[in-house]
Design goal:
mainly alpha, single chain
């Protein structure tokens, strides 16, 4: 029972740690195997090779500085989407030893899934943290991730049951947290699109910018989303008049603009009575 719990904890711990900081995970396992403090399974013994540890150490130093620079950490996480997840699957498969190909495949699936979940949580949280103008939040988050990787792997090796219980709680937290992170990431990138769209738009000649228009990323993020619909402030629409307004009715057409002194209605026709009347007057003369 103890061997099963240790193997399971090491398998899941390797996948979990790879999604947060792959190079720190390789260094911790390689160092423990190289110093004899951990009897690495056959599939993970390559981690204690000096060349592997040298490359992992160099990449860890690069990530140490990139992970603490706002904006650079998000680019770094984007590239490592294609590295951490498959590496977590490989480390988890190597941790099961020689149990069998079925166990290796199951471990690879579990380790890759855990690496994907922790990587998504880390990358999404960094996008939200980068909206803060000060760099101290990035430094604190990066250091906390490094400490968590080292402490988590040591707990998986020395106290596997405790680690498995904490990992179960962490998975439940991820189920609740990931949808919220996804909505926050979409809001940040939407604000970025509006921010750069406004910066690229040239003002119309003679027009003054609105005093209430947000200009900074923080203001744009706090700006409520706009609903799709007609622009109320654009003024009345121009077009041909229809007979649906006041002053229109059956038998009435639109009033034409006439000059002063012009008749507002049709000219009266001169009927026979008018003709005869004028003739009688002439005869009377």
């Amino acid at each position: 029972m103890e061997d099963i719990s240790q193997t399971l904890a090491l398998t899941l711990g390797a996948g979990w740690a790879s999604g947060i900081n792959l190079y720190a995970a390789i260094l911790v396992l390689g160092f423990l195997g190289l110093t004899g403090r951990l009897d690495l399974p056959e599939g993970l013994q390559v981690l204690s090779d000096p060349l592997v540890m040298m490359v992992a150490g160099f990449m860890y130093l690069a990530e140490f500085f990139a992970d603490k620079t706002p904006g650079v950490d998000t680019v770094w996480d984007s590239f490592h989407t294609f590295i951490r997840i498959p590496a977590g699957a490989l480390l988890a498969a190597g941790a099961v030893g020689d149990i069998g190909p079925g166990a290796e495949l199951a471990a690879a699936l579990a380790g890759g899934s855990l690496a994907a979940a922790t990587h998504a949580a880390k990358a999404g949280a960094r996008v939200l943290i980068n909206t803060s103008p000060e760099p101290f939040t990035n430094w604190g988050a990066s250091l906390a991730e490094d400490v968590a990787v080292v402490a988590g792997l040591l707990a998986a090796i020395n106290h596997p049951l405790v680690f498995l219980a904490l990992l179960a709680a962490f998975i439940l937290l991820l189920i609740w947290l990931l949808p919220k992170l996804w909505r926050g990431v979409k809001r940040v990138f939407g604000a970025l699109g509006r921010f750069f769209g406004r910066k690229g738009a040239e003002p119309v000649a003679g027009s003054s910018p609105s005093a209430s228009r947000p200009e900074t990323m923080t203001e744009i993020l706090l700006e409520p989303p706009r609903l799709a619909g007609p622009d109320i402030g654009s003024g009345p629409s121009e077009g041909p008049a229809t007979g649906s307004g006041p002053g229109f009715g059956p038998g009435h057409g639109p009033t034409s603009n006439r000059g002063p002194g012009s008749d507002s209605g049709p000219a009266p026709s001169r009927g026979p009575a008018a003709t005869s009347g004028s003739g009688g007057t002439g005869g009377g003369g």
